[in-house]
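Give me the fold.
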Amino acid sequence: MRRKERLSFQALVKDEKEKIMNNQEELDKIYDKIEERMELVRNPKKHA
């Protein structure tokens, strides 16, 4: 990736991160997904 493209990509990622961090609903969705995945790891279902 060229330097100019990389810098614009990094700026885009930073901008999106700031949008998400300032939006409580988006943060709640992220935490819900994390909790769901952690629950699956903590309680693996036994097969057979």
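The chain has a mean pLDDT of 86.
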